[in-house]
Amino acid sequence: IMPLQEFVTVLVRDPRTQKEDSWHSYIDYEIFIHTNSMCFTRKTSCVRRRFREFVWLRQRLQSNAVLIQLPELPSKTPFFNMNNPHHVDHRRQGLQEFLEKIVQDALLLSDSRLHLFLQTQLSPEDMEACVSGQTKYSVADAIHEFASLNRRFPIEDEERKKGKNDAESDSESSSSRLRPSDDSISCGCKASPASEES
């Protein structure tokens, strides 16, 4: 039998404006990963990241992989207008293309920072600390912990209303785990700590 072709699907989607304080806002984007690659601890995940964190990631990856020419991020233009859907979508596309190229590179995929960036909501400082062994938790711990955090949000109540059998069949049958329904995917995303409750 032919081995399954490895794939990594990366989507950058759902730009949302977040308020930092009464003067400052920023846009963050949902990063959705679906993969069967051995490199990834989790096969599906959803996190939210802002442009500045992509910039941090690129700098860190570049400093570790000196000989690789990393793909460019969409340019940080002084005229970027958060209220202009065209600007926002252009940046979103650029961020997606950046990540699509990154996850095709085996050397970059070996960088733990990339995995923490894609599969946890840790801040850049916490990602650095984790990678350099200054935290009690390992990279894999952080990713698993984030996965379990994501399942404990109010979304679960909605799941229960829809019918319990979904949730139960999920833990038993492996086939449902390989190809999660859109529901199970999106529930992780809405549960991100950066949701607009404040």
UniProtKB/TrEMBL annotation:
**Gene label:** Snx10
Q: Which UniProt keywords apply?
A: Cytoplasm, Endosome, Lipid-binding, Membrane, Protein transport, Transport
**What protein does this entry describe?**
SNX10 protein
Which GO cellular component terms are attached?
endosome
Residue ranges of domain PX in the record: 7-124
Compositional bias per record (Low complexity), positions renumbered to this chain: 172-186
The record's listing under PROSITE patterns reads: PX
Where does it live in the cell?
Answer: Cytoplasm; Endomembrane system; Endosome
What top-level branch of life does the organism fall under? Eukaryota
